[in-house]
Write a structure and sequence with these properties.
single chain, alpha+beta, 5-stranded antiparallel β-sheet, 3-stranded mixed β-sheet, 16 helices, 12 strands, 39% helix, Lysozyme family protein
Length: 447
């Protein structure tokens, strides 16, 4: 029988199911049925007293905070997975102890997940086992080649951007230590000044994740480790494509409504292209893009044969929209496992997922009205590239990074997500015009 204090905890905190890595997912709460399941299936349990102490301090400091994504114990389905949200630790009285807690991110009314993550890491409390926040995980112990208290990529299905997950160590001297937590260890920057949409440096996170591939699996066969590594790489690539797509879609109807016509842009395209120079610090990355375009040319020529679109146009769009990932739609980088969900959504209209990349690419170019067009002159080509991403940059008086990033014609400023422009943000993608120019200069193509 679950004690009354447990009943209050379950209902107040709302038991939650987990993602594929066994971490709580507040976006998929089981509601009243899940509460009943939890009460019927888990042993008598309580929350670790160290977490009760932290929750009490947070509630006292942020009295109006939302608790919508708070969580402690998981539901019955969650109990089948390995997670600290299960009462797998048993105290001296034979009672299960939940050693994990989720704290809602609520910038509007008080607590910011960025601040809490910084504060916990800065304090390096010996009770902490690990922290998950906003697609990152930080452990109190070294993981592979990643040092303790260092953020690395977290690639679970739940990005943990609605709540911060905290697990404490399983020793009673740690999880039941009720000493006050240091909530003044981190930056004293005001909560209002913290940008919750700030980009995570995906290159660092992915590099850290790659360093840990295969760790703890050395007893497994080489084949097993290779398959596991491939799965991890696929997950990381999907994450990277999603991040890039989120940062390269200035679909702002108000700005698009005032876009200049092709005749107004034609001369400017030619002048910019003729005077363009690759930034020296980006030359290596530009060369790498050319190598990928040439390497995948046979795949792009399959699409060209069905659409009449030059293979290099297909390839450059693939690099920008899908980061050269053949498991992503050419429309917008969405995964091929289903029709697209981002703009344009529901494409291709006839689809039996998972289907093939070529079919998707043909549909994307047909949808954009690029298929079977006779004019592939330089200005018309650049106009089509820019149209693929949008013309909203003209209202900002800068050249579109979708075309000119990595060149002397672009310094900073970009849409970091649909309709949200950041004048200080810098594109990390190689622009379409830059890729085209390096291929022309190397006599790979003629336009």
């Amino acid at each position: 029988m679950v004690s009354p204090d447990n009943v209050q905890d379950v209902i107040h905190e709302e038991p939650v199911v987990t993602d594929e890595d066994g971490h709580a997912d507040p976006t998929d709460c089981g509601g009243s049925e899940a509460v009943q399941d939890a009460l019927e299936t888990v042993r008598s349990w309580r929350l670790a007293r160290s977490l009760e102490q932290l929750r009490s301090q947070i509630n006292a400091r942020f009295q109006s905070r939302s608790k919508a994504s708070d969580g402690t114990i998981g539901d019955a389905a969650h109990a089948t997975r390995s997670s600290d949200h299960n009462p797998w630790v048993v105290d001296s009285a034979g009672k299960g102890v939940v050693t994990a807690m989720d704290v809602s991110h609520d910038l509007a009314k008080g607590i910011d997940g960025n601040w809490l993550a910084r504060t916990l890491v800065a304090g390096s409390d010996p009770r902490i086992k690990y922290i998950i926040w906003n697609r990152r995980i930080c452990s109190a112990s070294a993981i592979g080649s990643t040092p303790a208290w260092t953020w690395r990529a977290y690639t679970g299905a739940n990005p943990h951007n609605h709540h911060l997950h905290l697990s404490v160590r399983p020793e009673a001297s740690r999880y039941d230590d009720v000493a006050a937590w240091n909530l003044d260890a981190g930056s004293h920057e005001s909560l209002e000044s913290i940008d919750t949409t700030a980009e995570v440096d995906e290159e660092i996170l992915i590099a850290n994740a790659l360093n840990t591939i295969g760790e703890g699996r050395r007893e497994a066969s080489l084949l097993t480790r290779l398959i596991d590594a491939q799965a991890e790489i696929d997950t990381l690539l999907d994450l990277y494509v999603a991040e890039q797509r989120a940062q390269t879609a200035p679909e702002d109807n108000a700005l698009e409504a005032v876009k200049p016509g092709y005749d107004q842009l034609k001369a400017g395209y030619i002048n910019l292209f003729d005077s363009m120079k690759v930034r020296p610090e980006r030359a290596g990355e530009v060369a790498w893009h050319r190598t990928k375009l040439l390497q995948f040319r046979p795949r792009y020529e399959e699409v060209a044969a069905q659409t009449g679109v030059p293979w290099w146009f297909v390839g450059i769009v693939h690099g920008l929209e899908g980061s050269f990932n053949f498991k992503a739609h050419l429309h917008n980088g969405d995964p091929l496992t289903a029709r697209t969900v981002q703009v344009p959504n529901g494409r291709p209209p006839v689809w039996n997922p998972p289907s093939d990349w070529v079919s998707s690419a043909v549909d994307a170019l047909t949808y954009q009205k690029h298929a079977h067009q006779p004019d592939w002159s330089l200005p018309k080509t650049l106009h089509r590239f820019e149209g693929y991403n949008g013309f909203g940059y003209y209202a900002r008086n800068i050249n579109s990074p979708y075309l000119w990033s990595f060149s002397n014609h672009y310094t900073k400023g970009k849409f970091v997500r649909d309709g949200l422009y950041d004048p200080q943000a810098i594109s990390k993608q190689c622009g379409a015009a830059v890729m085209l120019r390096t291929m022309i200069d190397n006599e790979d193509v003629k336009v």
